[in-house]
Amino acid sequence: MATTLNVVPVPEPRIREQNRNEVRWERQLHRKAELDVNRANLGEMLQEVAAIESVSPQEIKGLASRIKRRKHADLRDLVKLSYGFQQSGENISEFVRITGAINVVVKELTGHDSDRQLLAAECLCNLSLGDEVCCEKVATFAGTYLVALVENLSNRRVATTCMWTLQNMISSGTKAMKILNSQGIIPSLTHLLEVLEKDDLLAEILLAIELILDHDPAFISIETIHATILPLTSSKEPQLNSLKVVYKALCLTGFETLDVETAPQIVKHVVQQLVLIGIENGAEAILSIRILANLVAINEGCVDFLVAQCQQHNFKLSQLFNLFSEDGQVAVCREILWLVGNMSKTGTGNEFKRFVQFDNFVECVIIPKALLV
What we know:
The protein has 373 residues and is mainly alpha-helical. It contains 22 helices and no strands.
């Protein structure tokens, strides 16, 4: 049996915080174009957005006061607010200071006008790009409705936009997440994880779960990870987001799995993704190999199943090694060597012999010069 030294430690809190910030920034960069696509069906509204060069904090303050007084926001109000929130944090702060303004946007979100509902969802999404205090207020006034609308799969555009808003609040800090947790976000996400298969929304659900896992087991318990998160995630068609969820969940459990089926299912999930990986996916390859290396380090049954999966897909670790070796990606090569080393230490003699017969790793690999130094 391999020692625990072969297992990757749980990431430090500061690394988790950095990861949350990076994910948040990436979402902010690419989401504007996606929201514009959502607005395209609103016809002239998209042209009006393009005509808005800038929205000042004073304009936001005046608009917030006006919709509060009228207790209603029309399409143009929502478009201007949404665009203004994208432009600066000061605009967001001005809006949040007007007590009751958020309630008007929430009213439009829960109304029967589909166009206003979509724009209200977008408005809250951009508002949630604000700081932790802002996200706490959005969670307080809109969280329950956002969680409910995410589960309304008959309107995917609204559901997806609400999911983005929830992701922003989850990554903002503990306060907003505590509120969302009390509003039932975990059962909602696990239900969607169970019912969705190949779907764009599934990737967003997985990202939300990944962000919650960054809070440690404060909101998703180890028991829930064992019973729900790992089995459901590894049963889906593999993608980068599913690998991240599996890895972070396993880090929290010490790479232990409670039942005999989950670990082999994870191995199958990861190998299916590795088969498709190219040289442009170095980070994804490292993540996949780390999952496998840690699992085989503490579970000798995983060695036999890993060999069987490699044979089934005619997938050889030596070929993967050489692919990244020739491209100079030494970090990936090191991870593969670590995996093969763990397989040799943990597996029985027959298991590793079967691996060598299928994939004569030592004789086939091309060692990059950087590894020989």
